[in-house]
Design a protein that fits this description.
about 230 residues; alpha/beta; seven-stranded mixed β-sheet; 6 helices; about 25% strand; globular
Length: about 230
């Protein structure tokens, strides 16, 4: 599910390959194994989609150091109950999770304090936090891609306003393979548009040195050499 890129992880549902930091080389030959993928009601406080992935991030000081990642969708629902941010932090500590990908679909001027509070608590626990953006059509030029880029611009503004409690990166989960016209193991007609969207996001994030990750459909990695080289 990640990109540009360099780190890898494979989820238990066999759906995506986790590829990583923008600016690294995708084809490093490193291996990774997904260790958990589940929906879970945690202590009755929040309901999120969880994926803990063993990966090899090339951005780390030790390129062989594993990364355990947690995907959190519907963030405001997850944080609605009192003490939810602390519960997320404590869950990460207990499971050895050191990166959290937080959905930002609901981030705006009235909700940013809730995001900042969660980020602060996770940072104090030495846990990285990336802004998670999901879409089925952001590979398409025009309004779909511009919607994605506007969301990235909002993340950059949020980071500028909150500074120390800003996001540590952007995590893209663009899934054009979910659309009917893109289904089928060899149907990769969406790939050029997907890569252009990745590049467009990097053009915004690179000047402020914000890393970009992406969740890449595993069938893309089964494409021919020319298709894989697009990444």
């Amino acid at each position: 599910m990640n990109r540009g890129w360099g780190r890898r992880g494979y989820n238990a549902a066999n759906t995506f390959m986790c590829l990583a930091r923008a600016g690294t080389n995708l084809w490093t030959g490193r291996q990774a194994v997904a260790i958990w993928h589940a929906r879970k009601l945690y202590r009755g406080i929040f309901f999120v989609a969880l994926m803990a992935t063993l990966a090899f991030p090339l951005h780390a000081a030790d390129p062989h150091a594993p990364v355990h990642g947690l995907w959190v969708w519907r963030t405001l629902t997850a944080l609605k109950a009192s003490g939810s941010a602390e519960a997320v932090r404590d869950f990460c500590r207990s499971e050895g999770i050191d990166e959290v990908y937080v959905s930002v679909a609901e981030l705006n001027g009235t909700t940013e304090s809730q995001y900042a509070d969660l980020i602060e608590k996770l940072h104090l626990a030495s846990i990285r936090v990336e802004a998670l953006m999901g879409s089925r059509d952001a590979d398409e030029p025009g309004p779909p891609r511009e919607k994605l880029l506007n969301a990235v611009r909002e993340i950059l503004r949020f980071d500028q306003r909150t500074r120390a409690e800003g996001f540590d990166g952007i995590h893209l989960d663009i899934e054009p393979q979910q659309r009917r016209e893109n289904q089928g193991p060899l149907n990769l007609g969406f790939l050029p548009g997907l890569v252009e969207s990745y590049r467009a996001v990097r053009q915004l994030a690179d000047p402020v040195h914000l890393p970009v990750d992406a969740d890449i459909p595993i069938k893309v990695l089964k494409g021919d050499l020319s298709q894989r080289q697009l990444l």
